[in-house]
Amino acid sequence: MTQIHGAKPGLIAALRAELRRRHYSPRTERAYATWVRRFVEFHGRRSPRELGAEELGAFLDDLIRQGLSRSSHQQALCALVFMYQQVLKSDPPWLAEMARPKQTRSLPVVLTRGEVTRVLAQMEGVTALMAQLMYGSGVRLAECAAVRVKDLDFAAQQFFVRRGKRNKDRVTLLPRRLQAPICQHLEAVKAQHARELAAGHGRVALPDGLARKYPNAAQAWGWQWVFPATRHYRDSETGEHRRHHLHPTVLQRKFHEALQRTNEAAARR
Q: Structural domain boundaries of the chain?
């Protein structure tokens, strides 16, 4: 049985291993690991085996006091239930009785074509290109951020979405009018990648076990992110310096700023 004490690496390693065995997405893995760490640290790094319904409830109540959204509250609870059931192999009766946040349904806000055009006109740089690609191809925010060079087929005008919603692959349209801007953008990304290779870096994370099967693939041009982040990070498991893709919240922030400017301009008319 896995020995787990506080938030030591053994807990997180066991959690990540179980998530990967079940083919959870990397985003879910990172989120679950974060919630487990926060839970254990909230209770003074005590072992989760020593904690029960009262401690779990206190942690979730504290998240509510911090103004956590329903969806994040639900994710935190799911992470802790997964930890108890799948990692600790414990399923106490009180676990199923934990109150779950009530899900509410709301109508989505949909912009007209004209409104989208005006908002996009207020954007510039990489985030503008990402927003245009999302609008032109119908991909989701996370899917756009995580596209790799090899997933763009300019000849066939196709955009391959890997491990999208429900962990499924699909093919969508790569708009012709965006091909030239994307190619120009990729020239700058490739030049940056070449400089990083020369410095002994230029690696990205690979899905599943590809890193073990193809040790050099992480530095290959085709596996690089189309929209790389501005900074490197140090992988906690391998110690490698890698570059992640641009975080989706960057595009969200820029889009909301553009939307605000568009509304302000409309109000002045």
A: 9-96, 113-268
Cα 199 to Cα 12: distance, rounded to the nearest angstrom? 31
Q: Is the pLDDT of residue 5 over 90?
A: no
For 66, 212, 215, 226, 230, the CA distances from 201, given in Å and listed in that order, are: 39, 18, 14, 17, 14
- Helices marked H in the chain — which ranges? 9-21, 26-42, 53-65, 70-82, 93-96, 113-121, 125-137, 141-145, 179-198, 210-213, 248-268
Q: Which residues pair with 160 in a beta bridge?
A: 171
Residue 5, CB-side half-sphere exposure with 13 Å CA sphere: 1
Domain spanning 9-96: CATH 1.10.150.130: yes
Furthest C-alpha separation in the chain = 68
CATH homologous superfamily, domain 113-268: Intergrase catalytic core (1.10.443.10)
Phi-psi region of 157 (alpha: psi -120 to 50; beta: other; left: phi over 0): left
Tell me, rounded to whole angstroms, the distance of Cα 178 from its chain centroid.
Answer: 24
Cα distance from N-terminal residue to C-terminal residue, the chain: 68
Cβ–Cβ under 8 Å, residues 258 and 122? yes
CA quadruple 250, 256, 257, 258: dihedral, nearest 10: 110
Cβ contacts of residue 123 below 8 Å, gap of 6+? 131, 254, 255, 258
- pLDDT band at residue 238 using 50, 70 and 90 as cut-offs: confident
Residue-wise pLDDT for 89-108, tens only, equals: 887 777 766 656 555 565 56
> For residue range 117-162, what is the model confidence (pLDDT) as tens digits?
999 999 999 999 999 999 999 899 989 999 999 999 999 999 899 8
